[in-house]
Amino acid sequence: MAKQIDVENLNVYYGDFLAVQDASVNIAPLTVTAFIGPSGCGKSTFLRTLNRMHEVIPGGRVTGKVLLDGEDLYGSDVDPVNVRRTVGMVFQKANPFPTMSIYDNVIAGYKIAGTRKSKNDFDDIVERSLRGANLWEEVKQRLNRPGAGLSGGQQQRLCIARAIAVEPQVLLMDEPCSALDPISTLAIEDLIAELKASYTIVIVTHNMQQAARVSDRTAFFNLAGVGQPGRLVEYDETSKIFSNPSQKATEDYISGRFG
């Protein structure tokens, strides 16, 4: 079952630099939440704290809490590898493993973890995941060909299939359409709407029209100035953020007066 995310007073650091200051959000299960804001305001940094990818960066650390159905992901007894399995991630640039086939790309998470399964089990996982990413019909006759040979939009859907193959409960997407053409972007947006039935989804996007189209709730991040930490300015229903925001900074950003 998809998970609820509760972030409490989170501060995110790169070494001594405070990148995001005192952010708190509550993300309901089976919803799409969009993070918007100007470049450098901490959207992607904040996103990476939700599956402990931030700490992979040298000097990356957090204070505060990230709770997944009440369990603190940063608890001393929590294995970050298990966190990343539960909270999957799709990156800005499609990154299929270039030397692997489409088939092997989908099951890469199991192979990396050393999970043993029968060929029939893996066949089922590959078909289920590619169907879930709306890619099965396009690639079912060429599963043994390199994933890197697909178009950009197909590669991004392959990366989504790889992420959902290990059956996460949350899916993070860091600008998944920024490198795609409008037709591929629409395919990903349609896919997000379908995946919401099974996953809690959080997406970072610079495209405000996209945020308005795909998300239930929107978080607006902003910077007070150069060298200052990013802050979560406002978090509300997407319809309210785009029609009647509570903060002037949000209104200015959405109306194009800055950023």
Automatic annotation (TrEMBL):
<dbReference type="InterPro" id="IPR027417">
    <property type="entry name" value="P-loop_NTPase"/>
</dbReference>
<dbReference type="InterPro" id="IPR017871">
    <property type="entry name" value="ABC_transporter-like_CS"/>
</dbReference>
<protein>
    <submittedName>
        <fullName>Phosphate import ATP-binding protein PstB</fullName>
    </submittedName>
</protein>
<keyword id="KW-1278">Translocase</keyword>
<dbReference type="Pfam" id="PF00005">
    <property type="entry name" value="ABC_tran"/>
</dbReference>
<feature type="domain" description="ABC transporter">
    <location>
        <begin position="5"/>
        <end position="248"/>
    </location>
</feature>
<dbReference type="GO" id="GO:0005524">
    <property type="term" value="F:ATP binding"/>
</dbReference>
<dbReference type="GO" id="GO:0016020">
    <property type="term" value="C:membrane"/>
</dbReference>
<dbReference type="InterPro" id="IPR003439">
    <property type="entry name" value="ABC_transporter-like_ATP-bd"/>
</dbReference>
<keyword id="KW-0547">Nucleotide-binding</keyword>
<dbReference type="InterPro" id="IPR003593">
    <property type="entry name" value="AAA+_ATPase"/>
</dbReference>
<dbReference type="GO" id="GO:0035435">
    <property type="term" value="P:phosphate ion transmembrane transport"/>
</dbReference>
<keyword id="KW-0067">ATP-binding</keyword>
<dbReference type="GO" id="GO:0005315">
    <property type="term" value="F:phosphate transmembrane transporter activity"/>
</dbReference>
<dbReference type="GO" id="GO:0016887">
    <property type="term" value="F:ATP hydrolysis activity"/>
</dbReference>
<keyword id="KW-0813">Transport</keyword>
<dbReference type="InterPro" id="IPR005670">
    <property type="entry name" value="PstB-like"/>
</dbReference>
